[in-house]
Amino acid sequence: KKISLHSKLMVLSLLVINGLGVLAMMLYEWVSNLGSLKDESFFSALHIVFFQVVTTRTAGFQTIDLTTMVPLSIGLMMVLMYIGAGSASTGSGIKVTTAAVILKNVWTYLRGQRETVLMRRTVQTQAIQKAYAIAVFSLLFIALITTFLALTQPNISFIGLFFETVSAFGTVGLSLNVTAELNSFGKFLIMFMMLLGRVGSLTILFTFATQRDRTIRYPKENMLIG
Question: For residues 35 and 29, what is the distance between their CA atoms, to the nearest angstrom?
């Protein structure tokens, strides 16, 4: 009972995110006949997969050549790097608590409930809005930087550039062997993404935008969504 909500989410994420990640990657790389670990024993493949899933949180080490992995595993690693580590840690990404608040808020909306509750604690509206803002602006920055890289690095595959951008955003350090092929402008973009991921997209945006509440209130009106 003395453990805070944040600490509980960190412990739960260690079990859920890493557990689901290991299960999915084992299916892609070991069970699948197309996987790079199909010739490994179960425990050897499990060891390699567990290491690669955990290292996407911010470590950046690798025990196998990532270019030999199936596209599904590469996509899974990008999702894990996008989520990143925990808030107040030295890791980057949108953070585990951000993803947890968004998923729980979506589930709350689908069930027709008014308040978003995590572990018997109501999440404040401001925290929910901040979580969505972080997720959306982070995706926009990733899409923007990936587009610039694709335009200025035509000799490199788009998947490699996309993976490189997400890895830089999560300050992970994993790569599909394209880092050395980037020109000076491409390396500058990757360094910017590393700074953005570590400092935070909202912090970068707040340096250019002034925060102030409206002095005039306008009438409310419903609109079609979705």
Answer: 4
Residues 15 and 21: their CA atoms lie apart, in Å, by 10
Break the chain into its structural domains and give their ranges: 5-125, 136-206
- 5 exposed, middle or buried (CB, 10 Å; 0-12, 13-18, 19+)? middle
Query: Whole-prediction pTM value?
Result: 0.89
List, for residues 199-222, the tens digit of each pLDDT value.
Answer: 877 777 666 666 677 788 888 888
How many C-beta atoms lie closer than 10 Å to residue 39's C-beta?
9
Work out the angle at residue 209's Cα, subtended by the Cα atoms of residues 205 and 210, and round it to the nearest 5 degrees.
135
Cβ–Cβ < 8 Å for 99, 188: no
The helix or strand, by DSSP H or E, that contains position 121, with its residue range, turns out to be strand 121-122
